[in-house]
Inverse folding.
């Protein structure tokens, strides 16, 4: 089977320091959204730069759309698109002119590029701001403008490095919807790096948790969450220790329990909290126990990260500001396409 992205022992070493990326092994199937999760410094950006031919690996190999990223670098660039972590839109020209620059750069025919640009701006919700100077855009609008460039060349494989870092919730949701549409409408394979666990949970078919240049664990989000424990049903109750012990014996899906000062936490296995809670409540009522409150907590990808790395993934701030790009207007004038 040929994967859309595949690496074998992919490594990037800088001098005598520990490798930024060490013996990376990933396989991404055609048409899936694959997430690389981890904090700043985990090696995610270095990995993406190697896969997009911007960095040469120290050792190992990688292919994108069946093409070697070293031996076939020029051909790789023709079938991919890459949106880096830092904003790169040219603030001195309009949104339309930014897209026109890329349309000409990719060699789109004059007869089709106006239609393509219009469709792209419409899809990211910027049609009404197309002729406004980009310096007047918000951060979320600039990121959506960059995503619109993806529609200009319709890449086979799309790489995005922290696409929603620092954006407001509305902009994040719009970008998620855009990526899902790219997957559904164009069968685009997408590799996205993120340190937002909710983003990976909503978007990704498969994820790999990365730390200190290494893959710690990979799999479907649901499988990874199941691997660190089932749902937890928490109760505030006057039940005695004896009643709690009886419930554990009666229900084999209760894997463990924590009980102290009137608070009980039932850790489940093989049954969801939604399914188990009514039965637990009914049994307590039959034994004359009162329940003041109940809540159900599901395992999260944060729990997975903590389990496999031994630390918590805290939300981080962007590393640096936008890349200042101010020469597209001059380049546009020189383009004869």
């Amino acid at each position: 089977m040929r994967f859309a992205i595949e690496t074998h022992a992919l490594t990037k070493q800088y001098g005598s320091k520990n490798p930024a990326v060490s013996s990376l092994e990933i396989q991404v199937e055609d048409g899936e959204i694959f997430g690389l999760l981890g904090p700043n410094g985990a090696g995610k950006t270095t990995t993406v730069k190697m896969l997009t031919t911007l960095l040469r690996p120290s050792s190992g190999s990688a292919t994108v759309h069946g093409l070697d990223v070293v031996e076939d670098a020029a051909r790789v660039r023709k079938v991919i698109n890459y949106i880096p972590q830092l904003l790169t839109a040219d603030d001195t020209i309009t949104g339309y002119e930014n897209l026109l620059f890329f349309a000409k750069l990719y060699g789109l025919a004059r007869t089709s590029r106006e239609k393509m640009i219009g469709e792209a701006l419409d899809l990211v919700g910027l049609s009404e701001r197309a002729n406004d100077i980009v310096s007047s855009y918000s951060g979320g609008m600039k990121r959506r403008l960059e995503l619109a460039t993806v529609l200009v060349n319709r890449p086979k494989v799309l790489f995005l490095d922290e696409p929603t870092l620092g954006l407001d919730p509305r902009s994040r949701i719009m970008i998620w919807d855009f990526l899902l549409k790219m997957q559904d409408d164009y069968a685009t394979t997408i590799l996205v790096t993120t340190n937002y666990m909710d983003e990976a949970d909503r978007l990704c078919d498969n994820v790999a948790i990365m730390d200190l240049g290494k893959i710690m664990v990979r799999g479907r989000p649901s499988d990874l969450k199941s691997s660190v424990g089932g749902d937890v049903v928490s109760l505030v109750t006057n039940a005695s220790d004896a009643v709690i012990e009886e419930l554990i014996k009666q229900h084999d899906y209760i894997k463990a329990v924590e009980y102290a000062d009137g608070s009980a936490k039932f850790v489940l296995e093989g049954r969801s909290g939604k399914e188990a809670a009514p039965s637990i409540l009914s049994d307590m009522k039959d034994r004359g126990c009162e329940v003041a409150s109940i809540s159900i907590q599901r395992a999260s990808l944060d729990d997975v990260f903590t389990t496999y790395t031994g630390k918590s993934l805290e939300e981080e701030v962007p590393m640096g500001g936008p890349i200042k790009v101010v020469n597209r207007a001059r380049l546009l004038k020189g383009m004869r396409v």
In short: The domain at 229-298 is CATH 3.30.70.100 (Alpha-Beta Plaits). The chain has two domains: 5-225+316-334, 229-298. DSSP finds 13 helices and 15 strands in the chain.
